[in-house]
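Final report, results section. Input specification for complex C-07:
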Amino acid sequence: MINCGINAEGASVLYIDRHLVHEVTSPQAFEGLRMANRKPWRVDSVLATPDHNVPTTDRSKGIEETVARIQVETLDNNCEEFGLTEYKMDDPRQGIVHVVGPESGATLPGMTVVCGDSHTSTHGALGALSFGIGTSEVEHVLATQCLIQKKSKNMLVQVNGQLRDGVSAKDMALAIIGEIGTAGGSGYAIEFGGKAVRALSVEGRMTLCNMTIEAGARVGMVAVDEKTIEYVRGRTYAPKPDQWEQAKAAWADLHSDDGAEFDRTVILDGAVIEPQVTWGTSPEMVLPVGGSIPRPEDETDSVKRGNIERALAYMGLDGGQEIIDIKLDKVFIGSCTNSRIEDLRDAAAVINGRQVAETVNQALVVPGSGLVKRQAEAEGLDKIFTEAGFEWREPGCSMCLAMNADRLGDGEHCASTSNRNFEGRQGQGGRTHLVSPAMAAVAAIAGHFVDVAQYIEAQAEGAE
Amino acid sequence: MDAFTTLDGLVVPLDRANVDTDAIIPKQFLKSVKRSGFGPNLFDEWRYLDVGEPDQGDVPLGYSTERPLNADFVLNQPRYSGAQVLLARDNFGCGSSREHAVWALLDYGIRVVIAPSFADIFYNNCFKNGVLPFALSVDEVDRLFKEIDVNEGYRLQVDLAAQHVTLPSGETMNFEIDNFRKECKDSMRLLSV
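Structure output:
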């Protein structure tokens, strides 16, 4: 990371090491390059893959929808014209850009990483400074390899204790957002620390950092440790054996000093976090699965009361209703938050030969990349899902934002492992409930929410 | 393209917190490979009663003659027609980094967004496109909502150089914007009409 100087107001010129590119936020940037007669500054810093628009069903016939096809073809053409590496739709390494980056070793500890996508915070799990940018900045990075950035304030989110079985990084992320709110991290870069964070796998840390943006912060990070280094070792773009020791030594410094001061510190007890479910239209509208939905009349602040009323009206729910009584029409396991191999293992592990409820119209499992899909199939996870009645799909963003054909119908309730429950996010009129992969799987089977931690506990007792 | 340092504009009040970029411009319109033409689909799901699709052809800026309008939505109320200033609540522009949200606001005619707070990426994107976002306090924003409600044709005068906004009463409210961004506007004419 090179800091090329700092001005009186704290703005620096940052050199960007890795630029991830997808089809939705890049066409206008490439067009800008062409109009200015420029070329990408550092071709080998870019890794591109189409993910938002791609179909998750049979791809042999290409993309049916014309505008989506044009956008994916535009990415292909731009990458070809400028000599950029792209994992195209039919490449076995294609996938969601935030799954592909770490998986390929394209994102590494200590890098500055950008992408025209807010969930770029994901890569902070590797100890990278990684954040989402808009299309103008995509063009700027392509042209100059630099960005002007003002240093963020620092926040430490420390999660102590040990998570219970069945409680995951997703629940931790949602519990943190419930605590600090969706604007709580605005203006901050968040470092996640504490025993419960250290205990997470690197993939779990990706889930946590991924949802930093839902807490309002562009940057989420976890300090590098042995797990990080083991995760990176041997990946395609990771340092080769002759540079490995040198890289390891450099990465070992990527942690905050003991006693470092933060602008804000938030402390949570991991042991008391329960499986989380969102009930409203903002990720901060979240509760433990055993909770009941807030009653607007109990809220004294008129703006907040209005928010609750509007959310309940959109969600078709009543104040006071139990979370476990929410009936589900669809289930979606996927997205850059929860589509990695461990997520799929977590979901498959709680199925136990049972079937998706008849009242659930559709249950989708969409792996995050072609390599995740292949790994899952090697482990037989695809069989567990399909035998239970889940659909096993090709990799992409899919129903997280419903740019392709995978979407909710008007009024449908969905247990979703994605990251946003905004109005219309998964399809106009669709009603999203954000949960972990294991929660989504047990909800698919029951047709409503159940406490997966309790289920796992009961299973363990039964086995004794 | 004229750079503006002052703007006298009609204000439209969008009384919601956490307005996300999915609401500002829904995903189906992100399939365009252009920067322009998003205005007719600004706040599409709130503004129209039908489901908007990206291939519905060119419609007049801001209004569709064919699609059924949601008369309750504030942008559809005649008294706010031609508004250039958007007033909203906390955490405006949260969610996706899509710059299309700013392009849609601009294409519709919005040049200034006022809220108690903004999401970081949206805030940043505004400055690349000649849209000025600035924060006023929760109480100041609340007061503006109340005054707009009872005064049809409510306008604000925004003065970028002086970093204040003048109310119809002649009172001013100050806002912060860092000099670097302001200088960019002045010298590079990014904040232009």
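The longest helix of chain A spans residues 66-82. Chain A has a mean pLDDT of 96. This concludes the modelling results for the funded period.
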